[in-house]
């Protein structure tokens, strides 16, 4: 059991100018499941590898509990990592794969046996212990990789996209298994994914990164409800939030036919020192209604309707400040329009998100 602290930790790969991870400040609590999420190349794996000791820390420090591990070799850090490709030894049985690290450490045989069997029980791998990896399904291999990490009883688990080789259905199942296993074991876990659904459903807290810079870290709910900037707002949630930069006036934002009221403080903050005449406004697909033409919604021409069974996503476009802009609205099945229809979209009062047009920061 342990806490993890990144203290302004940076990694600049030799021959590159921009840090792959830039002054990362992040505290992870004892027993916490923290998910690192962000688009490809944002520095997730690098952050994880820095913690594992597989990558140099060029500036700042990393602590496990109070212990400064910044320059310790990987094996002195008491962590176990599960990689995307599992890296199982093909010539060894499941049992031997799981026992391998303990054997290297000269753990007594009886102790190895106890730990391997316990992990196999947790992961429902008992009946496969004598099989070779090639005789296992993708999901079973994934569980062996987890088992290998569990038997080491580390202070911290690190997982780098451990589900990306599984098909969609198995990924959903395994995601639940990993989350409940982590809860049972209570081992501090840092989990990397680029999938925001995985991040939202698995993490106690989620850290969102972009271009090596931590954007926001909070509970999934808080990230969704109060994204700190335009990037986080657009990244978390599927379909993505509708985010548009429009004209700002004394009373709010002019959104085509819609007027989105803003408080005086919001208008002032949006205007800023430079006297901005624009503001960025966002609303989630589920935070608007389709209304009748007389109720003053924004006319949106429907291009595509995605029937999800329980409800539907309606994709379309509207004219906004002389451009054609795309919108998506989540609607009830009963009010599902057809392609080519014009619907009238009205964001729900108080459910919009307002950002500074130049900095993208939440207002
Ligand atoms: N060994 C290396 N040498 C130089 N640059 C590297 C090296 N490894 C990674 N990078 C760069 O550092 C940045 C961060 O890479 P990283 O692998 O951490 O991204 P990631 O968020 O894990 O992306 P993905 O989702 O694609 O796995 C990228 O711009 C990448 O090109
Ligand atoms: Mg990666």
Please characterize this protein's 3D structure.
The structure is a single chain. The protein is of the alpha+beta class and 363 residues long. It has two domains: 231 residues, 3-Layer(aba) Sandwich (Rossmann fold), CATH 3.40.50; 115 residues, Nucleic acid-binding proteins (OB fold (Dihydrolipoamide Acetyltransferase, E2P)), CATH 2.40.50. Helix content is 25%, strand content 34%. It is built from nine helices and 20 strands. The protein has a six-stranded mixed sheet, with helices on both faces. Strands 13-12-11-14-20 form a five-stranded antiparallel sheet. Keywords: ATP-binding, Nucleotide-binding, Transport. One of its GO terms (molecular function) is ATP hydrolysis activity.
Summarize the structure.
By secondary structure, this protein is an alpha+beta fold.
